[in-house]
Specification:
Length: 185
């Protein structure tokens, strides 16, 4: 695999490496983000604070920003306040829209779900587990956006009827229980 990496002198250079030989390698594009008080942010990797670890995808609100650029984050899960600066943890992004995977075990006031029944690139991601997680995260308001309401509600061919599990990971009884747990009305 060859990737382009920033270089202080020449701008960019190509680096070739074998990903099978390395464990824990992260490849990402660093981008500048303007963050203001009241902004909702999320961690994009776990953050170690002494003996504690704040989990990946934890969401917080920026409560205040000091003159030195450090911000006070208030985490939604437990209300804890933490001083944050990009040098101590650069893995922070906006949290206005998040994936259903990120919302597992969380609740939001409002949820918007996008279900594109015709896009073959994401078809495998649409299944009963997606519908369940996406459809049970809201406190008061849920909206579903789709390209084809008939295809979404079709009891035989809807992507929401598919169970996309590895059969070797669960016993047959567990697969049947999951298959019967979500029905499209």
């Amino acid at each position: 695999m060859t990737i382009r990496v920033p270089h202080k002198v020449i701008g960019y250079r190509n680096v070739t490496f074998n990903p099978k030989r390395y464990f824990g390698v992260e490849i990402f594009n660093a981008e500048k983000r303007a963050i203001a008080e009241g902004e909702r942010v999320q961690l994009t990797r776990p953050w170690r604070l002494g003996t504690e670890t704040i989990p990946n995808r934890s969401m917080a609100t920026v409560e205040g920003i000091k003159a030195d650029g450090k911000a006070t984050l208030v985490f939604r899960e437990d209300g804890r306040r933490v001083e944050w600066g990009p040098k101590q943890n650069p893995h922070v992004d906006y949290a206005y829209a998040v994936t259903s995977y990120s919302m597992q075990y969380a609740t939001a006031d409002k949820v918007a779900i996008h279900v594109d029944t015709g896009d073959s690139r994401i078809r495998k991601l649409l299944d009963k587990a997606f519908v369940y997680v996406s459809g049970t995260r809201q406190k008061s308001d849920i909206r579903v956006f789709t390209d084809d309401i008939e295809a979404l509600l079709d009891p035989h061919h809807s992507p929401a009827q598919r169970v996309a599990l590895k059969p070797t990971a669960l016993a047959q009884k567990e697969i049947e229980d999951l298959s019967n747990s979500v029905k499209v009305a």
